[in-house]
Write a structure and sequence with these properties.
This protein is about 55% helix and about 10% strand. It contains 9 helices and 4 strands, in the order ααααβαβαββααα. A 4-stranded mixed sheet has the order 2-1-3-4, with helices on both faces.
Length: about 180
C-alpha cells in the first residue's frame, strides 16, 4: 500500500490539472478569478505557513462540487504556502476508498492535508456544511426515483446547483471558512 507521500508525488500540480480539464475548466477558473480570501482568512493562512502543509486533492473535472471547492482550495493554498497535488478519483480508487464519505460513498472532492513528515494532518470534503444543507434541501424537492419526471427534475436541480455555485459568492466564503477551520486546529 502506498504512503501518502507516494500518493502526493503521483499527483498533478494545479497547472497540469487545469490543462487536462475538458468539462468544468471555464467555470472553475471563473470562480478562481473572482474569489478572494478576506483579511482575516489571509492572516490565519499566513500563520499556517510555518507548518509546511501539503495537500492531496482527490477530484474529477466533471464534478460540480470540485468546480466550486478546488479554486477556493487553491486560494487558501497560495496564502498558506500549501503545495497541492491533484489525483483523479476514477484512476486512484485505492486511495479514494480509504476516504469514503459516510463509509460508503466516493464523493469528491476530498482534500488530504499532510504534515512535513507526510502524515495525515486533516481531511476535508466533499462539502462545507452550508453547501451540504443546500444540496440536501434541493434533493428533498425531487420526486421519487420511479416518477416519470424524476430525470428531468434531477437535471434541473443540477443546473440550479451549478448556477448557485458560480454566482452566490457567499458560498465561496463558506467553503473557505470550512476548509480553514479544518486545517487551523
Amino acid at each position: 500500500m502506498k504512503t501518502l507521500n507516494e500518493w502526493f508525488e503521483k499527483g498533478m500540480d494545479y497547472r497540469a490539472y487545469v490543462d487536462q480539464m475538458t468539462t468544468n475548466q471555464e467555470n472553475m477558473l471563473s470562480i478562481y478569478n473572482r474569489f478572494q480570501l478576506n483579511k482575516e482568512q489571509i492572516e490565519t493562512m499566513n500563520q499556517l505557513q510555518s507548518r509546511k502543509l501539503r495537500a492531496i486533492a482527490i477530484t474529477e473535472d466533471w464534478c460540480g462540487d470540485a468546480m466550486l471547492n478546488n479554486p477556493v482550495l487553491m486560494k487558501i493554498a497560495e496564502a498558506a504556502g500549501i503545495e497541492v497535488r491533484y489525483l483523479l478519483r476514477d484512476q486512484n480508487l485505492e486511495l479514494m476508498d480509504q476516504y469514503l464519505t459516510n463509509g460508503t460513498s466516493r464523493s469528491i472532492p476530498i482534500y488530504i492535508f499532510l504534515d512535513e513528515e507526510g502524515n495525515e494532518f486533516a481531511v476535508w470534503g466533499p462539502r462545507a456544511p452550508e453547501v451540504q444543507q443546500f444540496v440536501d434541501d434541493e434533493r428533498a424537492k425531487l420526486p421519487e426515483k420511479e416518477a416519470p419526471d424524476f430525470t428531468e427534475k434531477q437535471k434541473e436541480m443540477y443546473k440550479k446547483m451549478i448556477t448557485f455555485f458560480l454566482e452566490y459568492q457567499q458560498v465561496w466564503k463558506e467553503v473557505a471558512d470550512s476548509i480553514i477551520e479544518k486545517i487551523s486546529k
